[in-house]
Amino acid sequence: MNIFLLYLTYKYNGNWDKILKDLNDPKTLNIDNIYKLENILKTKEINYITILDKEYPEFFKNIFKPPFCLFYKGNLKLLNIKDKITLSGNYLTKNTAKLIEYSVLEWFKKTNESVLVIQGKSNLEIKIALLFLNYNKKIIFISSDGVDNVFSIYPELKNYQNNFLVISEYLTKNENSNNSDISTYRLLAALSDKLILYSLYKSKSFFKLIDAFLDLGKDVCAFPNVDNDNDNIINNLINDGANVVTSLT
């Protein structure tokens, strides 16, 4: 059954409804197609886990349309660490960057074991992740563009094998970017204890990310606008009820 879930996830590139439709009306699998898929995964050194595996996290099982299969590279055991936060934003000034670096490092120091969770799609956030990986900290990437796409942009991630994990519902880049982003947000919200935003420039996608956390009853926090940047509306979010933070501890 696992191989069936793997193949359907690949065939429909993570489209949950199409996968379910085929599960309700099973068809004979072409063994050659399965061998080809297994060779692709082996060549790219990509692993997978299905909802039937004992290692599949409960917090993913409980979300809307839980993924039938997840592709990953890195240390899957990072999912078991309890203290996890998502850090996100769409612009980073020098002042905010210094504040984030200090705050995250202090948070790592004061927690026995913790993981920073980010979207694997944003070049900005991957650069932030690389900064903390250089400090020997643990990072989980949730990618809406497939596992391998992250490595094609930042191949140096392979140097941090035990301290990172890249997860995606998609083996390859999903052309329907909006739907894949929304799907990724529900994984971020399920995985993390809270969302911390360091900036918020007008973007519908970020409000959908915020909604995903609120729908699961998770805290939404924000660093204040320390640069008096009129385009950064993060203070509006704080006025609407987001918890203001100057550190993560």
UniProtKB/TrEMBL annotation:
Taxonomic superkingdom: Bacteria
GO biological process, one term: DNA-mediated transformation
Domain Smf/DprA SLOG: 48-247
Pfam families, A to Z: DNA_processg_A
Name of the protein described by the UniProt record: Smf/DprA SLOG domain-containing protein
Source organism of the structure: Mycoplasma miroungirhinis
